[in-house]
Design a protein that fits this description.
Blueprint: H1 24-36, H2 50-57, H3 61-73, E1 77-80, E2 83-87, H4 93-105, H5 107-133, H6 137-156, H7 161-178, H8 182-194, H9 196-208, H10 215-228, H11 232-251
Antiparallel strand pairs: 1-2
Length: 257
Amino acid sequence: MSEYAGETSAAGGPRPRRAEPRSLTAQVVELVEELCLAPDARPGDHLPSENELAERFGVSRVVLREAMKTLEARGLVHRRQGKPAVIASPNALPIENFVALAVLRDRRALMEFTEIRKALEVHGARLAAERIAGPEEPDTREHIARARASIAELRADPETMATRLRTDVAFHQSLALASGNGSLAQILQALEKSLAASRERSHRRYLDGGGDPAGSATEHEELLEAVLSGDPSRAAAAMEHHLQVTLHEIETRPDAD
């Protein structure tokens, strides 16, 4: 803690706190980042052991482990019990952590990130329709088949909440992957995890309000058909309408929610 903590200035206000030097942990984080981002480094490559890294950087294993925890939270490395860490593949874990924290702290953030999700999914539907209508269509078949399977599973058991949530996520992830934009799909997956509680709330309000349980499967079928039409504008409009319903539900939630 700074030597100025708790002191007051002559004017009666708190005195400015002296800036602390960067911690050893922060310095080690930067050094390991350099290893992970080196030109010849590849996802899946093993990093040196903790003992080797601690010795190389001249720090204790405690400091090294704290640095590795930070890097894992950022999605840069993947640690395994009793084995050297490996360089992680590009992922959206930092986005997931940021969104989860923001939503917990501020209810308005839920609306903001749902709006972001809508914008991304509308664009993803447009891209998926373009790929289906173009030469890349074979690459989308696996994802379209998964989307169809999620609809069938939902229609077979529309009243079980676990089924509704699982198939809803699977359907939207499949369309995102069908877009061919891997980064878009990863960002959407990060948003989905952080907005999971809100998704469940939407489903519960829909059922409690007397909505047809099988109606959700029908909505997804219509959305999928719009994508399969190969018409980007139609696909985008269908996704826009589909997610606008979700936004309206969040906007009209009672304050108690």
